Amino acid sequence: MNKTKSLKGGTLGDVRLVSGTAKTVGVRKLPYRFVLKTQKKWERPGDPDSWRREYDLYTSKFGAVFTEAFRWPKCYHAEIDGDRMRLWMEYIEGVSGSKLTIEMLERAALEWGRFQGRLCNQPEALKGITCLSDAGFPEREFNQWHTQSFMYDFLISKKCSLPGFLKQMLRDGKIQLVDGKSFEYGLLRSEACDLPEHLRQMLIGIDDNQEAIFGQIKRLPVVLCHRDFWTENIFFVNGSIVAIDWDGAGWGYLGEDIASLVADADDCRHFEAYCRRLIPAYYQGISEHLDISAIGNFCVKEMILIKFGYRLLQKYMFTQSPGKRNQAMCMLQKIYEMEND
Fold it and tell me: Which fold has domain 3-135+218-298?
């Protein structure tokens, strides 16, 4: 009889560990374990096919690009039925998430750099794989913060999940909405935002100079990106690195994934160590296969702010907990201090 255990998932996805004992023809009993991942159709803004990307990749020749040092989980069976896909996959046992040591993360950064660099020198390995997202995804994602999705009447209504104290600030005029922009965009520029001025200006500067910043990023080498490369998706297994959740995979710019991993520091006190050890390890790995000596600015700081700047603003402004506010402000301060590194 099968036993199932929920591992993780969301509203439209479900991931379960299935285990049990199978009987062979000779009545021999063999234990088994595998992961069943079910994903319903949904549209990630700017990347509508992400819900089925892992199915498309597993049924392509993509698996041939991996090595023993860096790989993804094996897939035993994949099927798609209309608006739902299912994968029967290898259950990965290893160290992951907050249990990863800095040495393990350093190894992950090194192997990921090697993986990206090697594929840059072997473009034929990805020939014919057309399901990857395009390099414009981060810019489209960033531009969503510049789109006003909700009107004033909705934001102050009971239907809106905005914290009550922010709704009151809206009513009192301490938060001014900006036409065509997100709530966070207006909040950052309002009287209610009590972030230290240099941190506010750092975030505003990304908004005001986005055209020039993205122009600089677009001069970087285009590489294969995971786009969800953070500790919960990285496993250290007997000296090898296994990365899971490839539904965001696609073409992007050198440094995107390491920026995500560095920003995933669970404590601002770890951020400096992540910068000091993970970024050099990543560049060491990629430079073994790709000449990056002529690149002046790798834009890691800008990439962190593009992806996580407004999220950190939310963490700071959407709570009244001093501890949580201090943690978010500390992270922004550490990012600010990357300026001269």
Answer: Phosphorylase Kinase; domain 1 (3.30.200)
